[in-house]
Amino acid sequence: MIKRRKGLATLLTGLMVATLVTGCGLSSAKPDPKTAATPTAPTSANAKVIKVSIGVNEVSPLYLGMKKFGDLVKEGTKGKYEIQLYANAQLGDDIKATESVRMGTLEMTPPSTSALTGIDNKLMVFDLPFLFPNAEVADKVLDGPIGQNILDGLSAKGLKGLAYMENGFRDVTNSVREIKSPADLKGLKIRTMENPMHLAAWKAMGANPTPMPFSEVFTAMQQKTIDGQENPIPTIYLQKFNEVQKYATISNHVYTPFIVLFSQKIWDAMPKEDQAIFQQAALEAKDYQRKVSRDMVKDQVGKLRTAGMTVTELTPAQLKVFQDATKPVYDQFADKIGKDLVKKVTDEVEKLSK
Length: 354
Ligand code: KDG
Hints:
single chain, alpha/beta, 6-stranded mixed beta sheet, 3-stranded antiparallel beta sheet, 11 strands, globular, binds 2-keto-3-deoxygluconate
């Protein structure tokens, strides 16, 4: 009983202090209706918070793209929502964060599609080695009916897919030797994403693939428990992999999309007009993010050389040896992905590449 009385006294004191401080009681200050030109934009104090888990750091194209998304949502909803970004896998790596989004305990995450094949094997179609010849073809497939159909299919898994951003064309680095052919990969422990096709492709190329979450990669290279890894240039440069890797080869062996995921459970509870603003913001942010990523790639190959890395650009003949070495992966995984989808995507890529 005493505890209750004490609690009441504390509450009253708090109310008195708050009144003195704000001059208008506990609620946040409200403009005089006579002078307010527009509906009161909720202050960040009462905005609905949307948390986003991001696996890479705050200078990555992905983080910048999701920041653009947040700015567009805040503007479009007049501050009703606040997008809070959590970088460096603070809220969990791709797989864990995606599970939290599925359960509705986290609002959003934009992981690599490669990390999600345990949720939907169709996403593995984007892991087919050397599938996309360039970014323009990748954009057309991802932003067209094939990509949209895959996004729509995720709803049944508790995930609202809003758009594809760019992780990019992946290149291999290592601390042991220059890589010009698959033979140079022999015996090298190369970290891969936790994805069976990546494992199979690197085995086919002669490496010793070691799957692990992205957040563990830098330390593993620093401690030499792995010899190398493979990621797009912006990740290699911005995560400072050049500090623990001597060699990079521009293999462009896979184009990985990021997929902007929203919790379907939380999405379904949102007003339709808010959903439309979020969807439009994701599409605009996607275009912005892809440009940021591509501008960085142009700029950062040279910066990696300046930072002391040996960066090898393969001749077409050298590249063909890698392409031929990974071809068996297509047949090996066609059933798992779905033969129809593999054919649809490869036919579309062929048509768009003419
Ligand atoms: O959230 C993005 C990262 O966690 C990760 O997907 C980046 O390509 C990546 C990798 O190699 O894991």
